[in-house]
Design goal:
about 260 residues; mainly alpha; Arp2/3 complex 21 kDa subunit ARPC3; two-stranded antiparallel sheet; about 80% helix; globular
Length: about 260
């Protein structure tokens, strides 16, 4: 999609896009406040350089945007609800650099995805992905940021999965589904019918719909993302923070010192 097409879509949904931006700013502010409180309380100092941090955020956002393009349909939900693994790079970045970095990666991911593919849901799908993803990343990364241990990582993933399930379900019922129906000029009953077509438990109300279709999707997303994050984070964390490079430099420096001493 080119810039003109994207600009036309933004203009035609201006009020919704403004609301989208307000939510983005609100979530980012929450993540920054949480991070600063923890830094002040725990006396945490991030020794990672700003340049390395920015580079890692950019790379993780790009990987996340690509992963967002690969969606897996769920048999118990309508076709516009799909599972993707784009939160894994976001979680890795948030674990490494704090919750605010996670939200920033989420935002860049959405921007990159819009330029690569545009939107087929009048921005509702992108808002859902950002807000629901942030509801997973912010609490999980905040808990882990305060105490970086294996046990805390497991607890943080459990917390994140609970939060994404509860928030995602509620957010869909109170905001996303009504907004989708309004923007598309599609009766809400027609959307609910799509749920009943694939899942008899969806029922006739928006609340039974989200419980039967949305809650399981978000729970699976949180569980899968948590498991994969726990499996890969510790392996790549030293690379993100430059620990491996620093260790090599120290090792080389020590080797040079020994060789010099032997020559003398």
């Amino acid at each position: 999609m080119n810039f003109k097409d994207l600009a036309d879509q933004i203009a035609s949904n201006a009020l919704y896009v403004v609301g989208f931006l307000v939510i983005i700013v609100g979530l980012f502010v929450c993540s920054v406040i949480a991070e600063r409180i923890i830094r002040w309380k725990e006396g945490i100092t991030d020794k990672t350089s700003a340049a390395r941090r920015a580079a890692c955020v950019g790379v993780l956002a790009a990987i996340s945007a690509v992963l967002m393009l690969f969606e897996i349909p769920m048999p118990f939900a309508p076709s516009f609800y799909k599972l993707d693994l784009s939160e894994i790079p976001v979680m890795i970045g948030a674990y490494a650099f704090g919750p605010s970095a996670g939200v920033l990666i989420e935002f860049i991911k959405i921007v990159l995805k819009l330029f690569m593919k545009g939107t087929s849901t009048a921005f509702v799908g992108e808002l859902a992905n950002f807000a629901v993803g942030s509801s997973f990343v912010i609490p999980a990364a905040t808990l882990y940021y305060a105490n970086k241990t294996k046990t805390t990582a497991i607890k943080s993933c459990v917390l994140g999965t609970i939060c994404i399930t509860l928030f995602g379900t509620t957010f869909n019922a109170l905001y996303l589904l009504p907004a989708f129906a309004k923007l598309y000029g599609m009766p809400l009953d027609a959307i609910l019918a799509l749920g009943r077509d694939v899942n008899s438990l969806a029922g006739d109300t928006i609340y039974t719909f989200v419980i039967a279709c949305v809650a399981p999707l978000n729970f699976i997303k949180g569980a899968v993302d948590s498991l994969l994050t726990l499996l890969v984070y510790k392996r790549i964390s030293p690379v993100l923070k430059g620990a491996g490079i620093e260790a090599d430099l120290v090792r080389n420096r020590n080797t040079e010192t020994v060789e010099t001493s032997e020559e003398e």
